[in-house]
Amino acid sequence: MIKTETMTINMGPQHPSTHGVLRLVLELDGERIVRTVPHIGYLHTGVEKTCEYKTYIQAMTMTDRLDYLSPMMNNLAFMLSTEKLVGVEVPPRAQAIRVLMNELQRIASHLVWLGTHALDIGAMSVMLYCFREREMILDLFEEVCGARLTVSYFRIGGLSADLPEGYLGRVKDFITYFKQRVDEYEGLLTRNKLWLRRTVGIGKINAEEAKNWGFSGPCLRASGVAWDIRKTNPYSGYEKYDFEVPVGVNGDVYDRYLVRIAEMRQSARIVEQALASMPSGAHIADAPKVTLPPRNTLHTSMEALIHHFLIICNGVQPPPGEAYVPIESSKGELGFYMVSDGSARPYRVRMRPPSFKNLQVLPKLAEGLMVADLIAVIGSIDIVLGEIDR
Amino acid sequence: MIELLIIAVKCLVVFTAALLGVPFMVWFERKVVAHMQMRLGPMYVGPHGVLQPFADAIKLMFKEDFLPPQANKVVYYLAPVLGMTTAVLAFSVIPFGPQTNLFGLLKEPIPLQVTDLNIGLLIIFSATAMGVYGIVLAGWSSNSKYPLLGALRSTAQMASYELSLGLSTVSILMLAGSLSLNEIVNAQAGLYWGFIPRWFVFQSPTGFAAFLLYFICGVAETNRAPFDLPEAETELVAGFHTEYSSMKFAMFFMAEYVNMIAVSAIATTLFLGGWHGWGAGGDTSYGWVIGLGWFVAKVISLLFVYVWLRATLPRLRYDQLMAFGWKFLFPASLVTILATALWISRQVS
Amino acid sequence: MSPWVPLLVMMLIGLGFGVVNIIASNFLGPRHPTAKKNMPYECGIEPIGNARIRFSVKFYVITMLFILFDMEAVFVYPWAVVYKQLARSGLFVFMEMALYLAIIFAGFVYVWKKGALNWED
After folding, report:
1. How far is residue A277's CA from residue A101's CA, in Å, rounded to a whole number?
2. Distance CA A121, CA A375 (A)
3. Mean pLDDT taken over chain A
4. φ, ψ at B111 (rounded to 5°)
């Protein structure tokens, strides 16, 4: 045999399918990968540190930019920790709306994942179909909070505003329409021979290893571990909804695909239940020290004006302590560990980014694969660099 | 002298037609893919964006002509020219229509074909096989890693479909008994029972299998989805032409589209009766226009299949393509040859 | 005139088109090379090493086989062209080619079973 050399090649940060600015240094023997070294930090924004200089509400608006494919979920995770620090009860209507928004967000996030993943593997049309539906979800978001991506819809103790008139009907129309569309994506991919060849058996990881590597979310469930924080540690009233936790068998790229597709269907189910059982009442807790008083009371009530003035000037000041409330985001376990020193600004905020934990196993998954498979594996882990680099 | 002039005019006309086919095809592809994906595609430059490809070409013309210092300069410049030249070469032997005197403009009728060589099919094979060199040399001479990977993939691809590409046409040679494309087309004239055209797809039970084999190999040869490995943009950024810019890039782009049109034209000629169709040819003065129309219509429907494939299918991995080429296409084409031979010997005896 | 002349003309037109295009874009486009621009493209990072290495081509054996089988395939063409005429005289011509293809096929099966087509390892 002729002695050959391996080739070291940079994949990313400026590459079409490293999902942002992930940089992988690959050592290739032919097109087979000998070694993968991921480099991160090309999208470092210093959000965690900046949070220490912002009031809780201001800091929340920055979480939109972390996992920019599911801002509602970041907001929720941040708010849940804050609310635990503050010790405020969220009214049932606000909780139901939060669930509604989160499940819509999960669908939107999975749609982006499906579209880009399929595009990476070469199925171009799926991407545009997915973005067509995601557009509708973003329109729904825009209706409630005025923003499509940087939503910042949640507040300590509830929501920034109640739902507009007729909103639930529009969500219902969307879900009815969307459920047929999922069959359409499946029709294009699930039993497509080429898709199967590119995904089945690629990037396998078994349940034990997946747990040891700190996998969470759909990636973990694809390996056969039925771990879903919505079931195990319910938050925002998830215990009231009836849904299944889809699990895979082999833990390969194909199973991760199937799990996410099934999750979109389950999310649609949850949304339907939330619509059917939407409670009436206030959209934000009645806690004068924490939540802003209704706008119209400012002109008539001296107390309301004072509370408004204090909250705006000083911010909400939770008692000293710490809190961590995990939620099941579209990528996995997401939570903010927050330390309060009693001031209006968090002493320390630390995020548990699911993509970061899921990404660390990539070198192991990529070993011995071909470059084309690596692309499929990266896509199947569903990373968002905004969240990884923070 | 007048003979040489006619040749030159013919060549120029065919060359221009092939080149003008590129903007049409680009526009056609973008439009068809767009509508398959529920969007409009180019809309602004000209009515329904028909002038978009021309705008793109002009833009590329004025782009910086980038020469990477690490490149092997001669080969780097040669590669796109090679790709382009071999792509148009195939059109010189394809008959586009019957004989014509251009509505009485000429005293003697001329065939709508640049030249009728008795080994026309072999010329096409050699020309298209040379086209791979354009890609391989481009990838190698860039002296950059992604293009190198693209070039290697192109080699792998060539080694897996080229064989079946050649063998899939053997059935046609048996049916037509000639390598001249003109005779191949003429052997497909007429109708069965007055309504089924005597195209080679219908002439033998194996015709359709051979057609499928040829078309699959043709898609692979032109590096189109699902076999677009040498330029798989989600894997190799831009593949073999990563280091190319300006008109040099445009040449690869044009070569790819000319190749697509060429493969469709060859498939039309070999399997779908070339310019034959209802009302084509004959003694009427406009018969040749109808023939040409049939030819173009058939080519466009094959191009539509190209676009359709691209909009639908994911990409294969290149070892899977090789396995597919060797373990399926090659044995399948051998079986097709034998089956056709058996069928013919039953027919003639 | 020889029917090959048009082929030559076509080739010249193609070459001419290519050369003219490249020269034209040379004059029409701007040219501002910078050190960063001159680097080979590697996703925006300074390349590690260089592309001129003895790179492993795993499918080497398959390309060799391709040349072998392509050579063999060439012999099918002349037979195919005259087959229709000769087939009238019986099955002998068919059997000839069947035998030839059987030999090719045997070689192909041998190569397959030997694992030469599985180049992954």
Report:
1. 15
2. 7
3. 88
4. -75, 150
pLDDT at B12 over 80: yes
3-state secondary structure of B225: coil
pTM of the model: 0.87
Chain C residues 65-104 with a CB less than 8 Å from chain A: none
Q: Could you report the predicted ipTM of this complex, rounded to two decimals?
A: 0.83
What does the buried/exposed string (b/e) look like for B130-153 if buried means 16 or more CB atoms within 10 Å of the residue's CB?
Answer: ebbbbbbbbbbbbbbbbbbbbbbb
Nearest chain A Cα to B311, which residue? Answer: A125
**Owning domain of residue C105:** 57-114
Mean per-residue pLDDT of chain B? 83
pLDDT more than 70, % of chain B: 96
Task: Give me the count of residues in chain A.
Answer: 390
CB contact under 8 A, B315 and A122: yes
Boundaries of domain holding B101: 68-348
Q: Is C48 in contact with A25 (Cβ distance < 8 A)? A: yes
How many domains is chain B partitioned into structurally? Answer: 1
Question: What's the CA gap between A353 and A252, in Å, rounded?
Answer: 22
Q: Strands, E, within chain A: which ranges?
A: 7-11, 23-29, 32-39, 154-155, 158-159, 321-324, 327-328, 333-340, 346-352
> Is residue B262 in a domain?
yes
DSSP class of B341 = H
- The verdict on residue C110 lying in a domain is yes
Distance CA B120, CA A115 (A): 45
Alpha carbon distance B66, C31 (integer Å) = 7
Contact list in B for residue C51 (CB cut-off 8 A) is 142-145, 147-148
Q: Give yes or no for a contact between A199 and A257, defined as CB atoms under 8 angstroms apart.
A: yes
Q: With contact defined as beta carbons under 8 Å apart, do A144 and A163 qualify?
A: yes
Contacts of A112 (CB under 8 A, 6+ apart): A69, A130, A131, A134
Q: Is residue B288 part of a domain?
A: yes
Query: Tens digits of per-residue pLDDT, B263-282?
Result: 898 898 888 887 887 777 66
Domain membership flag for residue C48: no
First to last CA, chain B: 49
**CA atoms B31, B35, B41, B44: torsion sign:** positive
Find the helix packing angle between B207-221 and B246-271, rounded to 10°: 180
In terms of C-beta density within 10 A (0-12 exposed, 13-18 middle, 19 or more buried), how is residue A62 classed? Answer: buried
Q: Is residue B165 part of a domain?
A: yes
Looking at chain A, which subunits does it touch, using at least 3 CB pairs closer than 8 Å as the criterion? Answer: B, C
Query: Does C27 touch chain A if contact means CB atoms closer than 8 Å?
Result: no
Q: How many CA atoms does the CB half-sphere of C86 hold within 13 Å?
A: 16
- In a domain, residue B8? The reply is no
Chain B with chain C: Cβ pairs closer than 8 A? 222
Output the pLDDT for position B38.
86
Q: Does residue C42 belong to any structural domain of this protein?
A: no
Number of domains in chain C: 1
What average pLDDT does the segment C52-75 reach? 81
pLDDT digit of tens for each residue in chain A (390 aa)? 667 778 888 887 888 877 878 888 888 887 888 888 888 888 888 888 898 998 888 888 888 888 888 899 999 999 999 988 888 888 989 989 999 999 999 999 999 999 999 988 888 888 889 998 999 999 999 999 888 888 888 888 888 888 888 888 999 999 999 988 898 888 888 888 888 888 888 888 888 888 888 888 898 899 888 888 888 888 888 888 888 889 888 888 999 999 999 999 999 999 999 888 888 888 888 887 888 888 888 888 888 888 888 888 888 888 898 999 999 998 889 989 999 988 888 999 998 889 888 888 888 888 888 888 888 898 888 888 888 888
Contacts of A12 (CB under 8 A, 6+ apart): A18, A21, A22, A23, A24, C43
| Whole-angstrom distance, CA of residue A332 vs CA of residue A221 | 10
